[in-house]
Specification:
ribonucleoprotein, Ribosomal Protein S4 Delta 41, Chain A, domain 1, chloroplast, alpha+beta, ribosomal protein, plastid, 2 domains
């Protein structure tokens, strides 16, 4: 299935921060002829019209989709699975998405974005419990041990990311359901993720409401 390959900055300008899609951040706009980076010179939004309820739900759904790098069909499938599981559908949905292997690699700090993590998995650089797993949607379980292959190239790809990360920037906090050993290129899944540690600020109930007519 194809994933989004268009301009990423355009998406975060429209939907807000999407850390799984890109590390880039929206910069404040300046007036022409002024070189100062002052918040008083930020231009107001083009439209102050009140958003419809449909648009609010659509944008929330799109944030989930682009952050986790899913197609529309994949996200709908996850919503249907969550709807049949025990517990609140929105919470189960986020747990399913967060426990994907590509997202887990990203949360462990082994890749800069989820698309980069997906590439590592697709190219067979990642082991789960000592076996190669090349399926980004693999659902990680408690006690899974995730490591880079011992091949020099596999570990070099992860090390290049670690070396390129800005030194002054604070490191992403590893969520409490994971343990990471970066020097060993290794991570451990301790438990199913808790809602408060989800990597995207999102209202999952709006996403479920958007799909309510399709499930």
């Amino acid at each position: 299935m194809s994933h989004y390959r268009g301009p990423r900055f355009k998406k975060i300008r429209r939907l807000g921060a999407l850390p799984g899609l890109t590390r880039r951040k929206k910069k404040p706009k300046k007036r022409k002829g002024d070189s100062r980076r002052d918040s008083s010179f930020i231009t107001p939004p083009r439209s102050s019209r009140k958003k419809s309820q449909y648009r609010i739900r659509l944008e929330e759904k799109q944030r989930v989709r682009f952050h986790y790098g899913l197609t529309e069909r994949q996200l709908l499938k996850y919503v249907r699975i969550a709807g049949k599981a025990k517990g609140p559908t929105g919470q189960v949905l986020l747990q399913l998405l967060e426990m994907r292997l590509d997202n887990t690699l990203f949360r462990l700090g082994m890749a800069s974005t989820i698309p980069r993590a997906r590439q590592l998995v697709n190219h067979r650089h990642i082991l789960v419990n000592g076996r190669i797993v090349d399926i980004p949607s693999y659902r990680c379980k408690p006690r899974d041990i995730i490591t880079a292959r011992e091949k020099e190239k596999s570990r070099a790809l992860i090390q290049n990311y670690l070396d390129s990360a800005p030194r002054k920037a604070p490191r992403k906090a590893v969520p409490n359901h994971l343990t990471t050993h970066r020097r060993q290129y290794k991570g451990l899944v301790k438990q199913i993720i808790d809602r408060k540690w989800v990597g995207l600020k999102i209202n999952e109930f709006l996403v479920v409401e958007y799909y309510s007519r399709k499930i």
